[in-house]
Design brief:
By secondary structure, the chain is an alpha+beta fold.
Length: 130
Amino acid sequence: MNEFIERIKTFSKHLTHDFEEMIHDHSSEKIPFTYMPALIKRHDKTKHTCQKLLENVFHTYELDLFPYFLQLETKGDRDEFILQLTISSQEKTIYSYRSYEESAAKQKPVSIPAPLWEELKAPFTSGAVH
């Protein structure tokens, strides 16, 4: 009988732990839109490409933080104009901004999963980026 009770206790501990992880993965952080480009551009895992087309400079920043993928496209020598910002996971698009769509997306905070926020802010809180 004691063995049975111990098995139930172990099962309930694992179930509680798994439930806590599931809630953490589905909780989100609200980040101002204006912070997102800097977070993406300054992350050490970001891949940057630059093209000059018809005297216009276009930048593409891609950040792969499995299972999340972030892409930022800007125009201008100093990234003056944000063309698009996409945050996605393997299952779905979490956030999408397109400059050509009429919306107030820049005014609203970006809601991102808590684990992604932890990955994005890590270089800034660890002192790795100055």
